[in-house]
Amino acid sequence: MRHPLVLSLALAVSMPSVAAQTSSTAGRTAEPAFDLVIANGRAVDPETGLDAVRSIGIRAGRIVAISRTPLRGRSTIEAAGLVVAPGFIDLHAHGKDLAAARMQAFDGVTTALELEAGTLPVGVAYDQIAKEGRPINYGFSASWLFARIAEKEGREPDGDLAFFQKAQSLKGWQHTLATPEETARILARIERGLAEGALGIGVLAGYAPGHGRKEAFEVARLAAKHQVPTFTHARYSSVIEPESSFEGLAEIVSLAASTGAQMHINHLNSVSSRDIPRIAMMLKGAQERGLRVTTEAYPYGAGSTVVGAELFRGNWRERRGGAVAGDIELAGKPLDDATLAEAQEKTPGAWVVAHFLRPDRNPADQAFLDESVLMPGGAIASDAMPWTTSAGEPVPGDLWPLPADAIAHPRSAGTFTRFLRDYVRERRKVTLLEGLSRMSLIPARILEGSVPQMKAKGRVQVGKDADLVVFDLATVSDRATFARPNQTAVGMRHVVVNGTPIIREGELVREALPGRPIRRK
Ligand SMILES: [Zn+2]
Fold first, then answer.
1. How confident is the model at residue 29 (pLDDT cuts 50, 70, 90)?
2. How remote is the CA of residue 320 from the centroid of ligand 1, in Å?
């Protein structure tokens, strides 16, 4: 029997056209009820627990039917033997160019949000992307650090992450306190960003570890006042006290408790490294007592950031828990103390890869990484980076495939498929349903209290946005490696954004740009 809702929708849409056709073109079949049908896939919805063969009818960018019986659409994707799941929602994506969006699309990402760094001016950043068009949905938080650099250095941000890279050669913003007047102006800039629709406040605290506790408190109070989350790269990256990662995360717990703000912790894996057992205990304790503290992690034991970052200064190797020379790489080449110092002096804004755990060499490190990645209630988020040429220049415009020498941390191409392959299929650390939840429903829920659009994302349900991935669970996999990052993930047979396929039969639909802004106003 047909699902009653499907029947009524099908009738509502097709009847007028049937009537029109019978008068002129008798005998032709009725207009299909759906723009697109994804037929006979294993539909999995983390919220309702649905895990069954269904056909999905899509119209005007939304899921309008989920049926046990066949549906007829203007276009059909045959999904027998494939999983049909909510598209992945990435709360932490720095690469905002077309190149980054396409690489993430192959990883199953349908919404990529720059929430950790954020940006300013927020309206400028949204307008720029809207002008160019994107295959996947996009959005920003308002950047506390951009505001701080602007006030401390007298430079105006332009809505681009390059502003942060260029600021690495300036020294007035990392370790200085803000006066009450400066703090007020920093907050005013953030507030302007929120008024322009930012999704929360991005707090790159770890890049300016010397900022005042009172300033951090005012930023959290501002988030609470506007009822938006903060997204924090915590202060300090160290297993050694004082100024340890534990201390940086304890600060977030304290701010959430004292202000009531919802506070999200970015990349729990890299910030906690080998201190995760104790840090997880602290965060679980905070959550059990009702604090609104959430987490995310990516399934790699190496991070990526600017070589000039504060975390690579002083006795940083010791503070990171015994990283050895060679564990930091610039354009694929290991840096020793001398070449690191040279790069910090000459090109402080250049992107590097830095290993903080060695799961490839050390089983204990794999266990530490697993504990961060599998933190109860935690999201998977990529921290995806912009793609550059080997000379460090951004990969420009509409180039596909990316130039052979294009480079970025492999998480920029493989976070979600790696998690599916390693944690769901191979090592079976989580069920498919839980794995999908961490990549779709959980990030949607982290945002939906303040961003109503997110209530329609992360679900395979009638009435929700048709952001969907159709993949082969037996073969889905990352391919990007540290040595060869420029390799798309495999196994995403189809990726649909707002009802439009952007990947079809495993191939990029180059002209498809259905991505929309995720924005509060
Ligand atoms: Zn970060």
1. low
2. 15
From the CA of 505, how far away is ligand 1's center (Å)?
34
DSSP sequence for 249-263:
HHHHHHHHHHH---E
List the one residue out of 37, 84, 101, 96 whose CA is nearest residue 65: 37
Q: What is the pLDDT of residue 325?
A: 62
Pairwise CA distance, residues 84 & 50, whole Å: 11
Residue 217 near residue 255, CB atoms below 8 Å: yes
Q: Token digits for 263?
A: 């506070």
Q: Are 390 and 405 in contact (CB under 8 A)?
A: yes
Name residue 223's amino acid: A
- Phi, psi for 79 (deg, rounded to 5): -120, 20
d(CA 289, CA 500): 43
Q: DSSP class of residue 456?
A: G
Is the peptide bond preceding residue 242 cis, with omega within 30 degrees of 0?
Answer: yes
Give me 339's structure tokens. 């070449």
Strand partners, 297: 380
What's the rounded Cα separation, in Å, for the pair 88 and 101?
13
How many angstroms does the Cα of residue 412 sit away from the middle of ligand 1? 14
pTM above 0.90, yes or no: yes
Grade residue 28 by pLDDT with cuts at 50, 70 and 90: low
Q: Is residue 296 helix, strand or coil?
A: strand
Q: What share of the chain is helix, strand, coil (3-state, %, to 5)?
A: 35, 20, 40
DSSP string, 436-466: HHHHTHHHHHHHHTT-GGGGGSS--STTSB-
d(CA 505, CA 494): 6
The Cα 163–Cα 380 span in angstroms is 27
The Å distance, Cα 303 to ligand 1 centre, comes to 8
Per-residue tokens: 207: 């890049």
282: Cα separation from own chain's centroid: 24
Whether the pLDDT of residue 4 is over 60: the answer is no
Residue 15 CA, ligand 1 centroid: distance in Å:
54
Ligand 1 centroid distance, CA of 97 (Å): 19
Instruction: Tell me how far the alpha carbon of residue 135 lies from the centroid of ligand 1, in angstroms.
Output: 25
Return d(Cα 301, Cα 324) in angstroms, integer: 14
Strands, E, within 193-236: which ranges?
201-203, 230-232
- Tell me how many degrees the CA angle 81-87-88 measures, rounded to the nearest 5: 120
Ligand 1 mean position to 268 CA, how many Å? 10
> For residues 116 and 139, is the Cβ–Cβ distance under 8 A?
no
Distance (Å) from CA 465 to ligand 1 centroid: 29
CA of 445 relative to ligand 1 center, distance in Å = 21
Distance from residue 233's CA to the centre of ligand 1 (Å): 5
267 CA distance to ligand 1 middle (Å): 7
pLDDT, tens only, 146-166: 999 999 999 999 999 999 999
Task: Compute, in angstroms, the gap from residue 145 CA to the centroid of ligand 1.
Answer: 12
Distance 12 CA to ligand 1 centre (A): 49
Helix (H, G, I), strand (E, B) or coil at 333: strand
Ligand 1 centroid – CA 406 distance (Å): 22
